[in-house]
Design brief:
- The chain is of the alpha/beta class and about 220 residues long.
- The protein has two domains: about 110 residues, Rossmann fold; about 100 residues, Rossmann fold (3-Layer(aba) Sandwich).
- About 50% of the residues lie in helices and about 20% in strands.
- The chain has nine helices and eight strands.
- The strands form two sheets. A four-stranded parallel beta sheet has the order 2-1-3-4, sandwiched between helices. A four-stranded parallel beta sheet has the order 6-5-7-8, with helices on both faces.
- Strand 5, helix 6 and strand 6 form a beta-alpha-beta unit.
- Helix 3 crosses helix 4.
Amino acid sequence: MKTVGIIHTTPATIASLGALAQEILQDVHIVNILDDSILADMRDGHNVEFVRERWISYASTLEKLGVSAVLSACSTVGDFAEEADRMLSVPVYRIDEAMAEEAVARGGNIAVFATLRSTLDPTVRLIQRKAKESGAQVQVETVLVEGAYEALMGGDKNAHDQKIADAVAKRLDTCNAIVLAQASMASAVSSLKDAGDKVLTSPRLGMLRLQKELEKQ
């Protein structure tokens, strides 16, 4: 049985990604690492180099545990995941990479939604890089959903989801793709009406990509 290590920056993603892994990866053992201080540090720009050091150390620890792959559950630290992938012998994947590629494939106007400002820039950079690699022409706008993250951290998931749904509804008619940048935002999809397949989330797309990568090993 293969083992996958998932590094989380919020407890909100542990259960949902665990359920997805059980559904999609099936016979794979999951090891979770959670550091819920990272998002606050990244949001405040506090000692970011130390955030980088400890994130990479978590990935290194998982490598020593013998995992087949490491998955970063957090878009905010995507750059650190890519750096770890270059450093370690075990592959390190971003949960949002497949989502970014799908958004670029849609072309045209892409709206990136996040509940934390610190997530917007890494996600936009990833989308722009994927567009450049593929030669696609895209225009990217960003939307910060005020108060949603605070609601989630306060235990009000319904308010979190509704704030995201309300913000997305205002841009459904003007975008080719809507990207919910954080894995923790995926729960808001059920609150969205008339969205069709325009709204993209990272957990399922990321897990399906991981499944394909594991099959190659």
